[in-house]
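Data deposition worksheet. Section B asks for the primary sequence of the deposited chain exactly as it was used as input, without tags or linkers unless they were present during the calculation. Section C holds the resulting structure in token form. Section D is free text for depositor observations; keep each observation to a single sentence. Incomplete worksheets are returned to the depositor.
Section A, Depositor: J.P.
Section B:
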Amino acid sequence: MRPNSERRVLPWGELPRGTRPFDGLVIVDKPAGVTSHDVVGAMRRLAGTRHVGHAGTLDPMATGVLCVGVGRATKLLQYVTGTNKEYTATIRLGIETSTEDADGEVTAVHGIGALGPASSWRGAIEQAMAHFTGTIEQVPSSVSAVKVNGRRAYERVRAGEHVTLPARRVTVSRFALEDAPHEVMDGAAVDVDVAVTVSSGTYVRALARDVGQRLGTGAHLTRLRRTRVGAWDEGRAVTIESLAGVVSVGGELPHVTVSEVCVALFPIVTVTEEQAEELRHGQFIDASRPHGEPPYAAMCGNVAVALVSARAGKLKPDLQV
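Section C:
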């Protein structure tokens, strides 16, 4: 750090250093104004280890569920990331921004004339949203974290490059109004509160962008909260400040164990102690293939041993957990 530079102050302030290592998933309620990487940095201190990662980036303006893996649970983060997610959000029709959310600069003001009379707003908006419900082809935001030739798209945009990302197939299983559309900014814009359930890789701000384009008003997100990732919803999420309080009194951080994560994510195959030992040594075992798609979680009692898949009539270990 340069002598004259100021250290960035995070909302939780100085954190105590944890001394009780563990392996598991911590469900954090991320506040607005911090990055997902900031949360990882806080968890590294609170958990007393650098072996920490997160599943599914939340933008700085977004709040809500961020699943943070500690220790051996980091091996499972790719599978947590791949689960369905739920959000609540506010879409502002009439104004476009450079980032498709409230953190960007205003790039166009279209107003709400294209929506017609207020009596027709709800129907028009719901019709536009229905067009982006189901399995769709979505073009990610150019300022997303998608990599283009090894660099994040947003890094290329900040460097002055023009970035157009290819469309990807995603599933929007729910895209619904939570309240009646309402005027804001002295009638210059309309805010729409929505609830969204999507597959991994879906960008809610891209949904806002596309709905705005279809309506002819343009749009951006002014609020985004993730309320669920897979099996873990906001009811289980805890703040960094709460976790700091636990560490300050010498307690163990609340977490989902590696075995519990495996039960939530994968079809289960039960193995004996002898088979568990064989899997730990990288050996194939004779066991019935469970229903569902691989990988499967091999469980000995209540303890996860490995992620396995079928090969030549046997189960082979793919990942020790």
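Section D:
The longest strand covers residues 219-229.
The chain is about 20% helix and 35% strand.
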